[in-house]
Amino acid sequence: MRIDIITVLPEILNGPLHHSIVKKAVDKKIVEIHIHDLRNYGLGKHKQVDDYPYGGEAGMVIMIEPVFNLITKLKSERNYDLLLYTSPDGTPWDQKEANRISTLENIIILCGHYKGIDHRIREHLIDKEYSIGDFVLSGGELAAAMICDSIVRILPGAIGNMESALSDSFQDGLLAPPVYTRPAEFNKWKVPEILLSGDFGKISKWKETQSLTRTQKLRPDLIEKDEP
């Protein structure tokens, strides 16, 4: 898989995308991640990428020309399955979307910034818009990093034990059950006896029950969403 990210602040992405599982996946050539500085395609001597909005509103808006030129260059080099934009008014990003997009070959992520991007980009160049929550960030870079991480970690080979990823929260529409490790007792707080029993059938049933119970208590909306 190849992921191209377009941003005006590439340095924000260097940290989260050069460590942990994502870095290992890149090193193992499971995924390619290319970060493109939009300013390299800026206009004029000062490489301008933003301008004042029409209508007199406060803030700055990313211009269409630099974005169009960079996207055109990328598309001339390969075919892309999806061009997505991180936006607070986009479709909520969730595990189902991460699973679906992880099966694609080439995607582009455009990070918003300032007041936003020229709406013509959204109308004519973007395939899909995604939001990571009902709040506003200074830019789309952190959202792009989160989207990348959620995609890359479920690519085959990215995690040593794929069963670990498949048992994460939201993979089956439920929250994950509680997890424990040694010691079995600390400060008189004990690990549930069932997990120490060695009876994997009963343990599996316990985990299923815990997942359902925790979801009903903490995120009942997940269950309601799946109801007909």
- End-to-end C-alpha gap: 35 Å
- What CATH calls the topology of the largest domain is Alpha/beta knot
Per CATH, which architecture of the largest domain?
3-Layer(aba) Sandwich
CATH class type of the largest domain? Alpha Beta
**pLDDT < 50 runs, ≥5 residues:** none
Give the CA-based shape.
elongated
Q: What is the radius of gyration computed over CA atoms, rounded to a whole number of angstroms?
A: 21 Å
Number of domains: 2
Q: How large is the share of residues in beta strands?
A: 15-25%
What name goes with the CATH superfamily of the largest domain?
A: SPOUT methyltransferase, trefoil knot domain
Strand order of the largest sheet: 2-1-6-5-8
**What structural class do helix, strand and pairing data support?**
alpha/beta
Helix content bin: 25-40%
Give a count of the beta strands, DSSP E runs of length 2 or more.
10
Tally the helices: what do you get?
Answer: 9
Summarize the structure in words:
- The protein is of the alpha/beta class and 228 residues long.
- The protein folds into 2 domains: 2-152, Alpha/beta knot (3-Layer(aba) Sandwich), CATH 3.40.1280; 169-226, tRNA(m1g37)methyltransferase, domain 2 (Trp Operon Repressor, Chain A).
- It contains 9 helices and 10 strands.
- The strands form 3 sheets. It has a 5-stranded parallel beta sheet with strand order 2-1-6-5-8, with helices on one face. Strands 3-4-7 form a 3-stranded mixed beta sheet.
- The longest helix is centred in the C-terminal third of the chain and has 19 residues, at 200-218.
- The model has no long low-confidence stretch (mean pLDDT 92).
